[in-house]
Amino acid sequence: MKEIYRQLGKEGMPEHLKATGSIYLEGKKTRVRYWLLGTTILALIILFLPWTQNIRTRGKVTTLRQEHRPQQLNSIIAGRIIKWYVKEGDFVHAGDTVAQLAEVKDSYLDPKLLERTRDQVKAKQSGVAFYSSKIAAIDAQIVAMEQTLTLKTRQLKLKVVADSMEAAAAANDHRIAEEQLRRQRIMKDSGLASTLQLEQRIQAVQNTLAKKISTETKFLNTRTELMQVQQEFFEKLAKARGEKASAGSDIASTQAEIAKLDNQYSNYAIRNGMYYLLAPQDGQVTQAAKSGINEIVKEGDKIAEIIPTQVEHAVELFVRPVDLPLIANGQTVRFLFDGYPAIVFSGWPKASYGTFSGKIVAIENSTSDNGMFRILVAPDNKVKPWPSTLRMGAGAYGIALLNTVPVWYELWRNVNGFPPDFYVGKKEKDEGKKAK
Fold first, then answer.
1. Are 80 and 275 a contacting pair, CB within 8 Å?
2. How many domains does the chain have?
């Protein structure tokens, strides 16, 4: 039937069979083979094209330094707000007053608290001066008593020497009188002396004995007086030294009280400066936690938040533990920021448009609350500066670049479920070559 239609041609065909010639392509040349061959060659070329392995993850914009992140303005003391100097959204400079507080504790309500505390310090200092004068007077008294003791002791010692010599002379006289009495008795027995002479000798011995006893008693009394004088002066010196020590103790106690009062005075002076809440750095006031007037705040309460104006932006990303060995400091990361259009070819980063480059500067050694490791990426301004309108907290989609491999290798790796190759930088490669 087809052959008949072919011989007849379209002109000889019935009107209702002319569409058959458009369906069957007998007698016409086809180019399917060329298309198939070209597609095959193109696929082979694509398989050998370089492909950059990568790790993809999401994060957000933050800052490289902690002091550039949003700072809370907290109240160090308890008080009540009596005046606001700014409103939310205002920009302030470092040292500008944000709010003013008034005291709420009864211990600090006295308006002349500093003056009265300073008066107490002066009074205590006067007490120290009085105690110092007392110590000086006691020292003078001790010196006078020591001099008197020296003179009195020297005088009594001389008297003791004199009394001892007098006692020795009396003892010698008594010994001579006894010897004379002995000889007188011998003479009496021989008839050479009378009874009267013997009695006179006996009387002389008794007189010398009485004098001997008297001088010895005087000598002992003088020695006793010397000891009593020394003891009396020693007691007086000990009492004076005790009073001096007591005055020194009073000085130490008073000085301790002065130090305590000075500490209180300094605390009060510093506290007076805390009634004004100052901006720690240049920035924008946001998130006012307290509103209105006379609202009470406690120690450490958040008053507002200040977003710094001058910041060093960075991006914090979170990578899975399985991908952590592929990450290293100094590694390149490409970013897509929320709100900035971009065209991305994941395997060909140089062909992408609208992406921004960064370098990994920190990798944390412990997992975060989400079970992943946090890394910080700083801008690589040598390639392309990050947008000046970038804000903290904006979303970022990061692509960490790894090794460059052929497309066929990447397909084979994904089919077999193998991980990407370890990233080895140029510096590490050079060091490896040198080591070999």
1. no
2. 3
